[in-house]
Write the structure tokens for this entry.
Amino acid sequence: MHKDLPIDILNSVEKPERYTGMEFGSVIKTPEETEVSVCLAFPDTYEVGMSYLGFKILYGILNDVQGIAAERAFAPWMDMEGKMRERKIPLSSMETSRELSQFSLVGFTLQYELSYTNIINMLDLGNITVLSKERREEEPFVMVGGPCVFNCEPLADFIDFAMIGDGEDIIVEVAQAYKKWQQEGKPGGRKGFLSRVVQIQGVYVPAFYDITYYPDGKIQEVKPNNKYAPKKILKRVVKDLNTVKYPTHPIVPYGTAVHDRIMLELFRGCSRGCRFCNAGIIYRPVRERRKEVLEKLARELVDNTGYDEISLFSLSTADYSCLEDLVKDLLNEYKEERIGISLPSLRIDSFSVDLAQEVQTVRKSGLTFAPEAGSQRMRDVINKGVTKEDLMNAVEAAFKNGWSGVKLYFMIGLPGETDEDIVEIVNLAKSVQYKYKQVTGHGGARVTVSVSNFVPKPYTPFQWVGQNTKAEFDRKHMLLKNHINVKNINYQYHDSTTSLIEGVFARGDRHCGKALYLAWQMGARFDGWSEGFSFERWEKAFAEAGLDMSFYNARVREKDEVFPWEHVSPGVERSFLWREYEKSQRAELTHDCRRSTCTGCGICQNLDMKIIDWKDDSAK
Amino acid sequence: MKLRLQITKESGIRFISHLEYQATLEKAIRRAKLPVAYSQGYNPHMKFSLASALGVGITSDCEFVEIELTEDMELAKAMAQLSKALPMGIHIKDGDMVEKKAPKLMASAAGAEYVVKVPCLADPSDGIHAFNIAAQVIFAKPIPKSHGKTKEIDVKNFIPVVSGKYADNVLELKFSCKITLKGSMKAAELLLVLKDQFHVPIVYEAADIRRVALYGLNDLGHKRPLLSKAQ
């Protein structure tokens, strides 16, 4: 526990257990063992942060290095923040109660745009100057990593640098560079250090780039102003996941994490090519771990954690080449020890359902599928590559195996969507209900339709498109609601306004930092939580910053417009994304390159890599 | 065989719930590779139990856990293995190995001893004295999961006497609380009684409560430790 959080405060806040720490597997190094201290800061609650695999990986990798001490900090919930501010208690680490300002490096993970205000707030609570240009010599360097670094421009005012791509190697190189710089007496001060780390491939220092704008607000040019800063920062990649370190001694929370189980990462990347998906581009190419490596890791993780569940983790687990054998092996190996296997996501086919049947012997409550769109035309537009027949086969298999409920995920607001496409969502749900009747002879299937609002993301074929407006989203939700006029279809939807703010920051530029700062000053925190989010506050902040939200979220971009994020690159060719965008307008499909021919995204070539897939037991 | 252990809940993890504490032990037992027994059936569970749930926010020197083993094991070895597998918020104080059929520890628990340190704004002596000489102290004890219903109990049936030491604005209380077939009461409830009925000006929210002992009674009615080794 933070040694400085008194009992009466903990007694007065919600969920005090989230401030506990002292878990099995947490690493506490002595001051003598600590030459470089790194605070891994998660801009959300403990329960959310401790469920995140990247955090475990970096914590393990850093602490394995002699002289580096990695500790953790999480965003205090709003009630706790109030108490901390009242009594001037700074935000500090779980491990040694070290105030954030006393670390060498403070690293935030950018998992989702709506956590940005929490980053600013955590800096402030940790007594770190919020604006990077005002930061004093002795203060820590603030760095970021994670999926949203592919456009971290809205955070440019607050961060010192970003690490792009897989974090395993780069974060250690950065910490070692800090150690060397420190040993040499910190030559050149802060700028001296930044001039050094920017030479590590994958490090992006926003202050080393000047951006000029046209009068209409679009970007004219992005130009390095430091001789070491590259014109384009290409992401870092772990070429072979079989040899990279995987944390086999992760922290085991006392039971408060959302995902409290072993996470076994089968592979990284996904090349199915869904056109809305940012992860599908930024994590390419697909790199699988060998089955034997996974089984060895599973053994160590089981022995070291005591968990009774192994989650087979990846962007699309059913695509793992040796999944059937792996599941069989694991079930055999751990039967005696009563350890279960779980699949976090299902592909829409009966193979996935059969697997789910095999691993899930107890719960028959619900299966989740993501057709993403209701009509075939729309699914072709987004290159989902799934037909109604696929879904019907999958649910038929599920119902035959005893499931009585399914949850279906959809998006609305996709490019080119018509009202007919939306109504098709309801028709699909009704077909699922009917399938249940066909299989079982009686009605009563529970079908949940969960609908989220499409947010165009950078580095996707839809990076050019405009997001729906609030009025459009709300009208479409109403349309859906009115069409779901039968029993047993449960309709869940996401608030459109949070999606709109997400849309602003996903493709925002440096100017958005001003609105971010103002919103934070007006009290914005935990925007990903309904308890924290206020759309009116954001409207006010953008107005005060003199910015138009629709310029960022609703505007259709021109083909050749310079985007704010393009000097940071996952390796994809812009021409590929444009081609995909054009194909989407013709509802044309693009195949998965994983076990077929190259589709020309350029990532393997630009990164000098290859797909690693063990389908025929030989990497391609 | 049944492995019985006296373990702690240290200050740092005081806000972990009983269920989380239990889940933590379960994982530790797995890590320790003890030959633990499982129930039969569709959804087998580990055969271990914790005596008396400790309230959230309270620390303890005397949590008792009983673990059913499928094969004989040397006590010292079992304790050493588990000790290594425990997180830093839990330590083993003592243990014994008994027959599987030995009665549950909790069945013989007759009372608990507490030490409370709590900020107190004025000398509490009068209030504590008044409590100690009172023949009866009625307290409306909330009934769990009853949406605010209470039942009246006589505090003195459970806690006849309290000793208090007051220095530097901190009151240190020591008392025993009986556990009867009809139930018991919480240490925090005694603090409310002292504060509300005897006007002891404690800062209730800041109370540091530690359960220091759980004991049984021998034939003569004297306190005795729960574990057989120490008898």
Notes: The two ends of chain B are 19 Å apart (CA to CA). The CA atoms of residues 114 and 148 of chain B lie 26 Å apart.
